[in-house]
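Section 4.2 – Deliverable D4.2 (structural model, holo form)

The reporting period included a commitment to supply a predicted holo structure for the target in complex with zinc ion. Inputs used:
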Amino acid sequence: MKLYVEGEAGRAVCHRDGLVTTHFRYRDVPFDDGHGSAPDILVGVCDVCGDVLTIPPQSTPAIRAARERATVSLEAQLPALYLETLDLAAYRINPQLSTDFRKALLSYYLHGAAAEKEAGAGLLADWQAFRDSFPGAEKQSPRKRLSLKISPFLAGEMEMLMVATALNRTDLIKSLVGRIHREVVAPAKPRVLPALQRFAGAAA
Ligand SMILES: [Zn+2]
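Output (structure tokens):
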């Protein structure tokens, strides 16, 4: 394979400038989701506009490592009924989905709750309604571990929701599960189902 060095010339197609010449330079490369970047990566840069156009194979592992370092690990101990609610919601969205979808579903609802005009509004009520529907669930079902890796951006939204709702992280997750129960599991015909099915298709 070819090993590229700084200053080397190449050619690539730029989304702005069409077929252009490039030079390999060290640049900070933004992650695909637009949040954060990998620092000082050798990439092919457009000679016209300066955008990063090519990423040589030798730079891929360093980008991946930076992406891994940037993820935030979350751990929570939840009564099993909460995890089963997530899994039942996933089953309703698509019976092929596995427990891997827990993270995507929680992230979807976390982002949705953070984006509301009044962030986190109604989450406490959703959690209370869930507990009222399943009295004793908090105490009786065995505790299970939920571990998630989320982006720094999503972790920031979670911190913001914790402040807005005055809930700790575990209780915030529980309240999101309460909302998922109300919107996805409980209704005879969930209004949110088509959007979630599209989301699951994109996340698969
Ligand atoms: Zn360009």
